[in-house]
């Protein structure tokens, strides 16, 4: 019998920029440094205001502008 190693599924990593000093992976990182984190850590860091929250997706400015009627 051969023992198979259980493989963890690869996590998608997100690059984020620190707003303030933070200890990441056992190393103190300065504000402004870009680090890679998983989605759970990204949400926690944003909630703690250690990174900027994701920008909400918005419609393009042209689509958001009110339509104007042309006078004939």
Q: Identify the overall geometry.
A: flat
Through-space gap between termini: 85 Å
- Secondary structure: helix percent: 10-25%
The average pLDDT is 81
Q: Unreliable runs, pLDDT <50, ≥5 residues?
A: none
| Count of helical regions | 2
The count of β-strands is 4
CA-atom Rg in angstroms: 21 Å
Strand content: 15-25%
Give the biggest sheet. Answer: 2 strands, antiparallel
Secondary structure class reads alpha+beta
What's the order of the H and E elements? Answer: EEEEHH
Major sheet: order of its strands? Answer: 1-4
Description of the structure:
- By secondary structure, the chain is an alpha+beta fold.
- It has a domain at 13-48.
- 18% of the residues lie in helices and 19% in strands.
- It contains 2 helices and 4 strands.
- The strands form 2 sheets. Strands 1-4 form a two-stranded antiparallel sheet.
- A hairpin with a 2-residue loop joins strand 2 (22-24) and strand 3 (27-29).
- The protein is flat.
- The mean pLDDT is 81.
Structure summary:
The chain has helices at residues 39-47, 61-64, and strands spanning 14-17, 22-24, 27-29, 34-37. The chain has 72 residues and is of the alpha+beta class.
Descriptive labels:
single chain; 72 residues; alpha+beta; two-stranded antiparallel ribbon; flat
Produce the secondary structure layout:
Elements lengths: L13 E4 L4 E3 L2 E3 L4 E4 L1 H9 L13 H4 L8
Antiparallel strand pairs: 1-4, 2-3
């Amino acid at each position: 019998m051969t023992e198979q190693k259980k493989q963890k599924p690869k996590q998608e990593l997100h690059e984020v920029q620190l707003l303030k000093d933070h200890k990441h992976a056992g190393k103190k990182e300065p504000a402004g440094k870009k680090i890679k984190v998983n989605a759970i850590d990204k949400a926690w860091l944003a909630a703690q205001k250690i990174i900027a929250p994701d920008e909400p997706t918005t419609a393009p400015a042209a689509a958001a502008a009110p339509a104007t009627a042309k006078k004939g």
